[in-house]
Amino acid sequence: LGGSISRALHQMSNATVIDEKVLNDCLNEITRALLQADVQFKLVRDMQTNIKKIVNLDDLAAGHNKRKIIQQAIFNELCKILDPGKPAFTLKKGKPSVVMFVGLQGSGKTTTCTKYAYYHQKKGWKPALVCADTFRAGAFDQLKQNATKAKIPFYGSYTESDPVRIAVEGVERFKKENCDLIIVDTSGRHKQEAALFEEMRQVSEATKPDLVIFVMDSSIGQAAFDQAQAFKQSVAVGAVIVTKMDGHAKGGGALSAVAATKSPVIFIGTGEHMDEFEVFDVKPFVSRLLGMGDWSGFMDKIHEVVPMDQQPELLQKLSEGTFTLRIMYEQFHHILKMGPIGQVFSMLPGFGQELMPQGREKESQAKIKRYMTMMDSMTNEELDSSNPKLMNESRIMRIARGCGRPVRDVVDMLEEYKRLAKVWGKMKGLKIPKKGEMSAL
Ligand code: GDP
Ligand code: MG
């Protein structure tokens, strides 16, 4: 995909005259690529029309950065499609909220329910899981197993066959137990069928969820729009989670799901494990969709803001795929000391919404400072090691004592490091573009 887009843009930059035909050829090539990434045909066609309106042929003919102009226009259009114009309903910690998960069987609901619960539990919520899937044999066992592993209270039944009844009982029980995030997992069935949607409507009516999350497998291709729309028509879907983004699918169906439900994507699933779950970030997602890699926007920016001679070592280390605690420390240092670099880093997957959510800069800075204080109590060996097993219990205890912070905080910091190391690990083998070169497109 990335290949064909970059080929298209290349052809264009080589053409001496930028006339309408060249632009059309280029857009057609990109259209094909986006369709291959499962972006819905109608969305691609609308985008094409918009781009033609936005991109002024005279500008292109005169300007030397033609590729950049087109790239930016496409990038912005795709970002726009992913923004439904309003954020997902925000739940309040400490106040009981009910979240209902819907989606076809196999889309990843049960797995994602647990990930969602676990994610919030780590942030201080009191989640609980209710299994209202009475359709599939073994559904309750699966949820029970996941919940037990994550130490999250659960409710379900082996004998009761009425999903509405179980859902209501579970929600009531956990409200009494002061859980503030009550998650209702539902059944899916293989096909979109009337009985399924009727069941979803009934469960929703009975449990009055504050938020309904539509779970979508990233590999369902062009079926995404109809599927999302069908669920939206029976229950008030308010957010989308796209699963299996660790696979081959580029996830273009997410654009359809947003368009069909008028709701934002809030998380993506990136594996079968509990912690393989990421807050959704529009820009890296679109980069990936265009085959630009998660890093190109970042690389472009880094060349704009950071003099090349100040960062070669970092880029070198990143391309080797080693992300040590010391690198994290250095980057935190940059973020705090130098405003613009802070902004650059907020474009990085993992650093963005997760570490430095918009509008909460003060809090983020305080957190980063706290992390750095803890790292000041680490030895050189610890800072430079790329072996995650090195940080054993006794080292953690020593660091906690050294910096006068609870062990829990040190564990938090190391979790953050692991998360970032995983994201940055994808940098491995990256060809570092020289200043002035286009990165991926
Ligand atoms: P449900 O029928 O909608 O409840 O789906 P499940 O939660 O049972 O998931 C179906 C299959 O997809 C299981 O084998 C999961 O382990 C797997 N799965 C779910 N999410 C992901 C993901 O993000 N990545 C990968 N690789 N597998 C996933
Ligand atoms: Mg399930």
UniProtKB/TrEMBL annotation:
SMART domains the UniProt entry points to: AAA, SRP54, SRP54_N
Kindly indicate whether the keyword Lyase belongs to this entry: no
Query: Keywords on this record?
Result: Cytoplasm, Endoplasmic reticulum, GTP-binding, Hydrolase, Nucleotide-binding, Ribonucleoprotein, RNA-binding, Signal recognition particle
Q: Which GO terms describe its biological process?
A: SRP-dependent cotranslational protein targeting to membrane, translocation
Cellular component annotations (GO), alphabetically ordered: cytosol; endoplasmic reticulum; signal recognition particle, endoplasmic reticulum targeting
Enumerate the catalysed reactions.
Answer: GTP + H2O = GDP + phosphate + H(+)
Mainly resides where?
cytoplasm
Looking at the keywords, is Hydrolase present?
yes
Q: Where is the SRP54-type proteins GTP-binding domain?
A: 264-277
Q: Name one GO molecular function term.
A: endoplasmic reticulum signal peptide binding
Task: Give the Gene3D superfamilies listed for this entry.
Answer: P-loop containing nucleotide triphosphate hydrolases, Signal recognition particle SRP54, nucleotide-binding domain, Signal recognition particle, SRP54 subunit, M-domain
> What PROSITE patterns does UniProt report for this protein, alphabetically?
SRP54 (PS00300)
* Pfam families linked: SRP54, SRP54_N, SRP_SPB
Q: Where in the cell is it found?
A: Cytoplasm; Endoplasmic reticulum
Q: How does it assemble?
A: Component of a signal recognition particle (SRP) complex that consists of a 7SL RNA molecule of 300 nucleotides and six protein subunits: SRP72, SRP68, SRP54, SRP19, SRP14 and SRP9.
Similarity comment text for this entry: Belongs to the GTP-binding SRP family. SRP54 subfamily.
Its UniProt domain note says: The M domain binds the 7SL RNA in presence of SRP19 and binds the signal sequence of presecretory proteins. The NG domain, also named G domain, is a special guanosine triphosphatase (GTPase) domain, which binds GTP and forms a guanosine 5'-triphosphate (GTP)-dependent complex with a homologous NG domain in the SRP receptor subunit SRPRA. The two NG domains undergo cooperative rearrangements upon their assembly, which culminate in the reciprocal activation of the GTPase activity of one another. SRP receptor compaction upon binding with cargo-loaded SRP and GTPase rearrangement drive SRP-mediated cotranslational protein translocation into the ER.
Q: What does this protein do?
A: Component of the signal recognition particle (SRP) complex, a ribonucleoprotein complex that mediates the cotranslational targeting of secretory and membrane proteins to the endoplasmic reticulum (ER). As part of the SRP complex, associates with the SRP receptor (SR) component SRPRA to target secretory proteins to the endoplasmic reticulum membrane. Binds to the signal sequence of presecretory proteins when they emerge from the ribosomes. Displays basal GTPase activity, and stimulates reciprocal GTPase activation of the SR subunit SRPRA.
The protein in question is named: Signal recognition particle 54 kDa protein
Species per Swiss-Prot/TrEMBL record:
Buddleja alternifolia
| Lineage summary | Eukaryota, Viridiplantae, Streptophyta, Embryophyta, Tracheophyta
